[in-house]
C-alpha cells in the first residue's frame, strides 16, 4: 500500500514540540545526577527509586525485540494497552470531526476512549458466527474514518477473526488498522507482527497482562512502523512506565521458558474445562476459544452469576451484550479453581 502515514497524523501533533525530560538531554552513563531535582538522599523504601526511570524503556525494548523479532524502533511501551489505545486517538483523530469503527461485541475501552476524545464511534456488529461483517464495514467507512479497531482473538467471544478478512481491510482501507492481540499467545493463529513491513497502516497491540501473568504491572505494547512509533513517543507522558515496573518486567523477560510452560498448562486446562462444561446441565453451548477464557451460554445467566458469587466465585456476566445473550465469560483458572467452578455449576444444575 502506497500512502504516507504522516498525512493521517493530526496537524497539531505534527507541530507539537514534545516535552524534553532531564533524562532525554544526555546519553551514556553518569555517576552524579543533579539534573532532575530528585531527592539525592534516596527514598524510604529503596535507594534506587529516588531516580526517574528511563523514559524510553530501552532495556525492555531490547529484550522484547529479541523475543518478538521486531526492531526496537518499531516498539512502543505503554502503561497498559489502554494507554496505547488512548494515544492512537490523540495522534490520528480530530475531535468532533473524525470517526472510528469498532465491531461489537469487543473490548470496551475502544468505545470509552472514543468518547473521552470526542471522536464519533461507528459500530459494525460481528456476524452470528462472530466474524467480521465486511459489507457493513465498507458501508460505514467514509473520508473521515481514521481507525478500524479489531480484536483477535476477540474479547468476549474468544474466537480469532478470519485472517483473510483482516488482510483485505489492511490492503483497502486508507486509515489505521489496529489489531489487538492481547490473547495471541493462547491462539492457534499466527500474530500479525511479521506483516508490519508489508502494511504501513498496521498497529499491533499486545500485553504482558495475560500469558505473562503481569496484569498488576500494567504494561502494554504497540508495534508499528517508525512514523507511528515516533508519534507515540512524541505525545506520551515523559515517564509513563515506573522504575519498579521496569525492573520486574526485565526479570520476567528472562524467563520465557516459564511463560511458555504456563501457556501449555492453561491451553490444556482450557480444553479440559470446555469439555467438562459441555456435560453440565445448565450449560447450553460452549463456544470455540482461542483465548484463556471461554464464552458459555447457560440457562438464566444472571441467576447463575449471582449464585456463583454467593459461593465466592466471580465470572463475567456478558448476557447484556448483543450476540452474547445468556452468556458467561469464564477465565481458565488453575486446575483446583476449575474443579471448584465445575462442582458449583453441577450443584446449581440440580438445584435450579
Structural overview:
The chain has 11 helices and 11 strands. The protein has 352 residues and is an alpha/beta fold. It has 2 domains: 5-19 and 55-254, Aspartate Aminotransferase, domain 2 (3-Layer(aba) Sandwich); 257-351, Aspartate Aminotransferase, domain 1 (Alpha-Beta Complex), CATH 3.90.1150. A 7-stranded mixed β-sheet has the order 1-7-6-5-4-2-3, sandwiched between helices. Helix 9 runs parallel beside helix 11 (335-351). It is globular and about 70 Å long. It starts with 10 loop residues before the first helix and ends with a helix.
SSE blueprint:
Layout: H1 11-15, H2 58-68, E1 75-78, H3 80-92, E2 99-102, H4 109-116, E3 120-123, H5 134-140, E4 145-151, H6 163-172, E5 176-180, E6 202-207, E7 220-223, H7 226-235, H8 243-253, H9 256-277, E8 283-286, E9 293-298, H10 301-310, E10 316-317, E11 327-331, H11 335-351
Parallel strand pairs: 2-3, 2-4, 4-5, 5-6
Antiparallel strand pairs: 1-7, 6-7, 8-9, 9-11, 10-11
